[in-house]
Design brief:
The structure is a single chain. By secondary structure, the chain is of the alpha/beta class. It has a domain at 10-186 and 221-252 and 289-296: NAD(P)-binding Rossmann-like Domain (Rossmann fold), CATH 3.40.50.720. Helix content is 41%, strand content 15%. It has helices spanning 19-30, 47-50, 67-76, 91-96, 98-118, 153-172, 195-204, 224-237, 258-268, 293-299, 307-323; strands at residues 10-14, 34-39, 58-61, 81-84, 124-128, 176-181, 183-185, 210-211, 218-223, 247-250, 255-257, 276-277. The strands form three sheets. The chain has a seven-stranded parallel β-sheet, with helices on both faces. It has a three-stranded mixed β-sheet with strand order 7-9-11. The protein has a two-stranded parallel sheet with strand order 8-12. α7 (195-204) runs parallel beside α9 and α7 packs across α11. The chain starts with 9 loop residues before the first strand and ends with a helix.
């Protein structure tokens, strides 16, 4: 991160108690930023709480659906930078509750952007989209100029939010950028329905890890510290490099099937367990992975962790965390 860029800067984060939000908040506090977080639900085991960072930030209790609360928060705390992360973040939950996914991911995004449009002090906005916003493509990897064509509830919610951000830039010159990332992993992920924390938890319990799909789906995985650095680096460069309105893919560019990933974790944990392959996945795209060439060229950003390095750090964290 740039020296002193964040010192005394007023930052508003939605989803600050989440996996990525906790990590970004830690980096901002370390850089002496003034952080304000919008919190709807308390997550008792969030890293934001267990690392005691919750005591270092301003808290706004509220929901993304409440435009007035967001407007007041931006004004009261004289916000300069907005990082919008809060969302329904899993495919399974969006499939079961599409209304919730659209209400949170789509309406929540336009409320954030509308509040920023009305408040003149905003210098930069980062909105989290997803690799899934691209939907099914005939050619891989995904590049930023590809069409957004989600088909299933989660994917569509991200395609819509992404396009709404572009609309606010082109119509109102709102200083917004969009991030499209692969699958995050690392210390602090409490969603055990995700393949990496779920597999680690199963192995530590001496239970066979579960693969919901046929195991052949290919994804890329981004270590959470690399993801946090990507968000902050993009924020720091938006103004000087005239990046407003643009989207950026952030990926380790390491592609691996779910089955091979689970077997890698089993090997790193010296386990003789065998995964149970259920072949029950629905409304999921078979293969998804990103090119981060644009981030390399314009931001000089690359992920620092190999998959093995990131997994080893992640396994070590869960061994301590789950033992407690």
């Amino acid at each position: 991160m740039k020296n002193n860029f964040w010192k005394n800067r007023n930052v508003f984060i939605t989803g600050c108690t989440g996996f990525l939000g906790s990590c970004i908040t830690q980096h901002l506090l370390d850089s002496q930023a003034n952080v304000t977080g919008l919190i709807k639900d308390w997550v008792p085991k969030s890293k934001l709480l267990i690392d005691n960072n919750i005591t270092e930030i301003n808290i706004v209790s509220g929901d993304l659906s409440d435009l007035e609360i967001i407007e007041k928060a931006l004004d009261r705390h004289e916000i300069d930078t907005v990082i919008h992360l809060a969302a329904v973040t899993t495919v399974g939950l969006a499939n079961r509750h599409p209304y919730l996914a659209f209400e949170t991911n789509v309406k929540g995004t336009w409320n954030i952007l509308e509040a920023c449009r009305k408040y003149s002090g905003i210098k930069r906005i980062i909105v989290a989209s997803s690799d899934k916003a691209y939907g099914q493509q005939k050619v891989l990897p995904y590049f930023e100029n590809m069409p957004l064509q989600g088909r299933h509830p989660y994917d569509v919610s991200k395609s819509c939010a992404d396009l709404i951000c572009q609309s606010y830039f082109h119509s109102y010159k709102l200083p917004v950028c969009i991030t499209r990332c692969g699958n995050f992993y690392g210390p602090g992920d409490l969603n055990y329905n995700r393949i990496i924390p779920g597999t680690i938890q199963s192995i530590l319990k001496h239970e066979a890890p579960i693969i919901r799909s046929d195991g052949l789906f290919v994804r890329d995985y981004l270590y959470i510290e690399d993801a946090a650095e990507a968000y902050l680096k993009l924020s720091e460069n938006m103004e000087s490099k005239f990046l407003y309105g643009q989207a950026f893919n952030f990926s380790s560019e390491i592609r691996i099937s779910v089955k091979n990933l689970v077997n890698k974790i089993l090997k790193l944990m010296n386990s003789n367990l065998k995964p149970r392959i259920l072949n029950q996945a629905s409304n999921e795209i078979k293969n998804q992975y990103l090119s981060s060439e644009k981030a390399h060229k314009l931001l000089n950003w690359k992920s620092k962790h190999t998959l093995d390095e990131g997994l080893k750090k992640t396994i070590d964290w869960y061994k301590i965390f789950l033992n407690k």
